[in-house]
Design a protein that fits this description.
By secondary structure, the protein is α+β, with helices and mostly antiparallel strands. It contains 6 helices and 19 strands.
């Protein structure tokens, strides 16, 4: 187990991540005509490079949860192998998929979530919020199993000053739930829409969509305003009034309408490409979250990586702020009974690669 000093350093990093620059994650869900469901998302942090890694976790791998007092939390062993994308350190998996096809991910949820207080007498059943995803991926196959598992544990914060999170869990059938912990109580929502961002709570975000009942795909018709004819400047004016800022409610609205109006692709691979194209609209440039006069972080983007998960075919795709080429890990090609645990940086280099075109 790590020393208490190390735990405190981890907690300090988490408190830094609770700054508003960390609170932007956008998730969508699409279904291909071949029946595959794809979940995709972005993760943002404008304060510094998260030094993200992908982790490959074999069956039988045992981990120890952190606890806020520097001692041990629950110990958990993976029944199923999985691949995850981790932030800050390899234990903190923010998005992943297991060999059974269950997808799990966390999204920042500041100001609205409240976990139960840590009770040292229950430490063997207490798990840190940023370690819930790896525990679930190693334990569960379905959404119902996720619900049953959550009922057996106490989710706690490593440091109460850090932001809370909420979670998205999706099984290969396409059934998706959102978990929020509010006032120390777990709340599950069936997410038939398939969109998730950050605060406020998921129920509020759904209600807020009613403010945009006037939006529709296509171009607004010509109108006569007295003697003046009003006509659209270009295509897409049916979406005039859709919010364009990067706050969580505005991103939720945009994601919902972009997702709902995209044509259904034939295959899972084509749908993955669609997800990345939609999420291009949610890339957040460095600087807009920085006060005038302050120096922005020396990173190319506040959107540090974007992922898409094909649960039917057991594949997870990602691209990063350093390299926009899409990379893929195929879980079917991994023998989770024999593979060794590993954590590998998402990028081999932090210099953006360019392909030169030679003209003769």
């Amino acid at each position: 187990m790590k020393t208490k000093a190390f735990i405190l350093s981890v907690a300090a990093a988490l408190v830094a991540l609770s700054h508003p620059t960390a609170e932007a994650c956008t998730g969508i869900t699409l279904k291909a005509k071949d029946g595959a469901h794809i979940v995709a998302r972005t993760i943002e942090w404008g304060g510094s490079d998260l030094n993200s890694q992908y982790v490959v976790v074999p069956r039988g791998y045992t981990q120890q949860s952190y606890a806020p007092d520097g001692g041990k939390g629950m110990t958990f062993t993976a029944q199923y192998g999985y691949v995850g994308l981790a932030v800050e350190q390899q234990e903190f998996v923010a998005e992943g998929i297991n060999e059974q096809g269950l997808s799990a991910g966390l999204f920042y949820f500041p100001g609205y979530g409240k976990y139960e207080d840590f009770d040292p007498a229950q430490r063997e059943a207490s798990i840190a919020d940023l370690q819930l995803v790896p525990w679930i991926l190693g334990t569960c196959r379905t959404v119902d199993e996720v619900k049953a598992a959550i009922a057996q544990v106490h989710v706690v914060a490593i440091d109460p000053r850090a932001s809370t999170v909420h979670w998205r869990f999706t099984e290969p059938s396409g059934r998706q739930i959102v978990l929020e912990i509010i006032g120390g109580k777990t709340v599950f929502y069936e997410n038939t829409l398939g969109v998730l961002t950050n605060s406020p709570d998921f129920r509020w975000q759904l209600t807020n969509l009613n403010n945009y009942v006037n939006l529709y795909p296509g171009t607004a018709p010509v109108q006569e305003l007295g003697a003046v004819t009003l006509a659209s400047f270009g295509a897409g004016s049916g979406f005039l009034g859709i919010p364009g800022d990067v706050t969580p409610p505005s991103r939720f609205v945009r994601a919902a309408f972009y997702q709902a109006t995209t044509p259904q692709a034939a295959t899972a691979a084509q749908t993955v490409a669609q997800c990345f194209h939609i999420l291009n609209n949610f890339d957040i440039p460095v600087g807009i979250e920085t006060k005038r006069g302050e120096t922005a972080a020396d990173i190319p983007s506040a959107t540090q990586w974007t992922s898409a998960t094909d649960m039917a075919n057991r594949m997870i795709y990602y691209r990063t702020m350093h390299d926009s080429s899409i990379r893929c890990i195929d879980l079917k090609a991994i023998d989770f009974a024999r593979v060794k645990y590993r954590a590998v940086p998402l990028d081999a280099s932090k210099e953006t690669p360019y392909t030169m075109i030679k003209i003769k």
